[in-house]
Specification:
Catalytic activity: L-arogenate + H(+) = L-phenylalanine + CO2 + H2O
Largest sheet: 6 strands, mixed
Pfam families: PDT
GO cellular component, one term: chloroplast stroma
Protein name: Arogenate dehydratase
CATH superfamily of one domain: ACT domain
Shape: elongated
CATH architecture of one domain: 2-Layer Sandwich
Strand content: 25-35%
GO molecular function: arogenate dehydratase activity; prephenate dehydratase activity
Distance between the termini: 34 Å
Length: about 375
């Protein structure tokens, strides 16, 4: 069943914004040398959204196409106004994906207490809002201890030129919600984000409910509330139940009590890394295909006693597939991959600098996505 979630309650943008000159000090890609207008073009639903690595190295990394269109957003703050935010005690505007009651909203408020949380329909929209100076930060999920990685956001990290400036971990406690008066035995279907459905698979199977994926958990709760369904429930937060007036039929329905989602804090500019607290650094790189290349890449960290906390591989579908010379049928032999790696060290640490310098000797592409304080507190 196709469902819809509410659009952000945001006023229109009245004038185009010129993005200021900036250079990513951690990137090996060619720096920007002139100002660019940011052009966002909608493409048809049948278009291929894959990333070409070569396009990421061009002078205009902000000109791209996306099938997710940017809804109307407020007039952006000026650079002068942004520089005075801290002095004036102004609230940061922080974008998150979803509607009110989403777990991402709670993560944004945990990452930036007293912020103005700005809902966005899609992950792409949150990235674009930061790039266009419409908000100050974005807080987006990247992995869950039960459901695994959010691959869409890994791909968007490479497509967009934002920097990871922090991370925040949030304990996720799912509830089964329904319209007032509805009992569990009345339900036939349940709506939620695919990650939430995966995290509650055993419980939902026990209840005998058919699972249907929608854009976000709170959006599912809002949809059920708006339509007053008698046989359809939602998996969402307790806070979403209060916001949308739904009954909580069951609490803590996730398959494991230790259900934690890690969120990334994204900004236009990187932070200056330090060594006064535990830091984490995130990078992405590609390698030539051949025996031992990945081993050599990971060894640059092991030989310097740097702990890796995450490695994720993502294919590049539009890259030309390599084929074996002796294969007359020309069947693809290798898919080209990008490797995302998180490691426990600051870019201010000489060990990290030496490791990345070593990696650059044989990596075909490398980019530092951010060096930022690690979240070592309780979720």
């Amino acid at each position: 069943m196709a469902t819809t979630t509410s659009r952000s309650l945001i006023t229109p943008l009245n004038s185009p914004i010129q993005y200021p000159n900036c250079r990513n000090p951690f990137s090996t890609a060619k720096p920007i040398t002139r100002s660019h207008s940011i052009h966002i073009h909608a493409r048809g639903s049948g278009s291929n959204d894959a990333i070409e690595l070569q396009k990421l190295m061009q002078n205009s990394p902000y000109e791209f196409s996306s099938r997710d269109t940017l809804p109307s957003l407020p007039r952006p703050l000026t650079s002068a106004r942004l520089s005075n935010l801290a002095a004036e005690g102004s609230r940061l505007r922080v974008a998150y994906q979803g509607v009110r009651g989403a777990y991402s909203e709670s993560a944004a408020e945990k990452a930036y207490p007293n912020c103005e949380a700005v809902p966005c329909e899609q992950f792409d929209t949150a990235f674009q809002a930061v790039e266009k100076w419409l908000v100050d930060r974005a807080v987006l999920p990247i992995e869950n201890s039960l459901g695994g990685s959010i691959h869409r956001n890994y791909d968007l990290l490479l497509r967009h030129r934002l920097h990871i400036v922090g991370e925040v971990k949030l304990s996720i406690r799912h509830c089964l919600l329904a319209s007032p008066g509805v009992k569990i035995e009345n339900l036939k279907r349940v709506l939620s984000h695919p990650q939430a459905l995966a995290q509650c698979e055993n419980t939902l199977t026990k209840f005998g409910l058919v699972r249907e994926a929608v854009d976000d958990t709170a959006g599912a709760a809002k949809h059920v509330a708006l339509h007053g369904f008698y046989d359809v429930g939602a998996v969402a937060s307790f806070n979403a139940a209060k916001i949308y007036g739904l009954d909580v039929l069951a609490q803590d329905i996730q398959d494991d009590a230790d259900n934690v989602t890690r969120f990334l804090m994204l900004a236009r500019e990187p932070i200056i890394p330090g060594t006064d607290k535990p830091f984490k650094t995130s990078i992405v790189f590609s390698l030539e295909e051949g025996p031992g290349f990945l081993f050599k890449a990971l060894a640059v960290f092991a030989m310097r006693n740097i702990n890796l906390t995450k490695i994720e591989s993502r294919p590049l579908p539009k890259q030309a597939l390599q084929t074996s010379d002796d294969n007359a049928m020309c069947f693809p032999k290798y898919f080209p991959y990008l490797f995302y790696v998180d490691f426990e060290a600051s870019m201010a640490d000489q060990r990290a600098q030496n490791a990345l310098g070593h990696l650059k000797e044989f990596a075909t592409f490398m980019r530092v996505l951010g060096s930022y304080p690690a979240d070592i507190g309780l979720p």
